[in-house]
Amino acid sequence: MIFLPNFIYKVIDSNGNISSGTMAGNTENEIVSYLSQNGQYPIEVREEGKKTVLTQDIQIGSGVVQRVHVIVFCRQLAAMLKAGMPLDKALATQHSQTANKQMKAAVAKLTASVKQGTSMSGAMAEQPKVFPDILVRTVAAGERTGNLDNSLLQMGNHFHRMDAITRKAKGAMVYPVACLTLTLAIAAFLIVWAVPQFAANLQETGGDLPGITQFFVNISDSVRAWWFIYIGVTVLVIILSKWWLSTPVGKSAFGQLSLSLPLVKNLVREIITAKFTRTFSSMVASGISIVEALELSADAMDNRYAELKTKAIVSNIKEGEAVSVSLRTTNVFPEMMLSMLSVGEETGSIDEMLESVSEYYDEESMAAIDKLLALINPIMILVLAVVVGSIALAIYLPMLESITTAM
């Protein structure tokens, strides 16, 4: 007997009533299709027992908003509009269903502005801390084309997918940072406390200390005597580094460096490509112009150097040059992506072609992160062994020499 997984779903009907339940099925798409065919509009569908990424935080505009509130807002509003509800009634229903205080206040302002005659996109633009520019522009395109419901649904799915890569990349840094922190903590303990204790005992017996032992003793004496300088310099370096990396020049330099480092350059390129193609395909499918979609997609890459290189070709696009030809001059994107984009331009299906490309690079970037982790783990263990082992050798080498001499 084959047991199908259960999926938790939340739907809205044509009257704006929201309900939830569970259903067995093979895939999430199968559940969505079944519910849609039965006159129910899915807001959220996920496999039971699995945590959804919608509960993660995301930087939206200049403030932090829980992803669940942005994505669910887009999906619920899209579902209500698809069900035929007027925009003002859909917003009022959305306001009543929102529990988060920040989001509830934002929806209230949005509803008031729309009732006063402001467009949906214009009302969203008044709250950049809640509604990002990419959402505002997509909604504006949906209003122009009469596909506001599809634009909102597309944005909800877009944010959901984009976050998966970012979370994976950030998660990959947890182990190396933890291992490096542990290494520094152990080294500091040994140098500040253990080395002086052993050195004092050994010096009482007379004789010269081995070179490696004397080296760590000198470091220990320096750290204990001038600890405030070491701490001050470290804090100053951290502050200056964070400041420099927050400047346009620093962001661009760091972005360029990440695209040239041997171990990570391919991974960074794949992540950049996945984010760019995902955003570009979503924007084009929403009816946004190629130039505007290109600028929004450049912002979504989270790499200042790649962003500037991409935006620099906008003038060429305006003059009629093919997007694939212009992007090739940036030396940022892989050849496969450019070739498929060229085919999409020739066939008039850029959005569909880039959607396929984004799926491919999503998977490639995830696999590359796993490979990088498999490589970093033994390297970090080796670093820990070398640092701690060197200090331990410095401590025990004089004792071994003493034992050897006595024998």
Topology diagram in text:
Elements: E1 6-12, E2 18-24, H1 28-37, E3 41-47, E4 57-60, E5 63-66, H2 67-82, H3 87-97, H4 101-115, H5 120-125, H6 133-145, H7 148-172, H8 174-204, H9 211-225, H10 227-246, H11 248-258, H12 265-285, H13 290-300, H14 304-311, H15 314-318, H16 323-328, H17 335-347, H18 350-406
Antiparallel strand pairs: 1-2, 1-3, 4-5
Helix pairs in contact: 2-3, 2-7, 3-4, 6-7, 7-12, 7-18, 8-9, 8-18, 9-18, 10-11, 11-14, 12-13, 12-18, 13-14, 17-18
Order of helices and strands: EEHEEEHHHHHHHHHHHHHHHHH
Average pLDDT for all residues: 81
CATH superfamily of the largest domain: Type II secretion system (T2SS), domain F
* Unreliable residue stretches: 51-64
CATH fold topology of the largest domain: Receptor-associated Protein
Summed up, the helix count is: 18
Beta-strand percent range? 5-15%
Distance N terminus to C terminus? 74 Å
Class of secondary structure makeup: mainly alpha
* Largest sheet composition: 3 strands, antiparallel
TL;DR?
With 407 residues, the chain is mainly α.
What does this entry look like structurally?
The structure is a single chain. This protein has helices at about 30-35, 65-80, 85-95, 100-115, 120-125, 135-145, 150-170, 175-205, 210-225, 225-245, 250-260, 265-285, 290-300, 305-310, 315-320, 325-330, 335-345, 350-405; strands at about 5-10, 20-25, 40-45, 55-60, 65. It has about 400 residues and is mainly alpha-helical. It has three domains: about 5-50; about 55-170, Receptor-associated Protein (Up-down Bundle); about 175-405, Type II secretion system (T2SS), domain F (Receptor-associated Protein), CATH 1.20.81.30. A hairpin with a 2-residue loop joins strand 4 and strand 5 (about 65). The longest helix is centred in the C-terminal third of the chain and has 57 residues, at about 350-405. The relative contact order is 0.08.
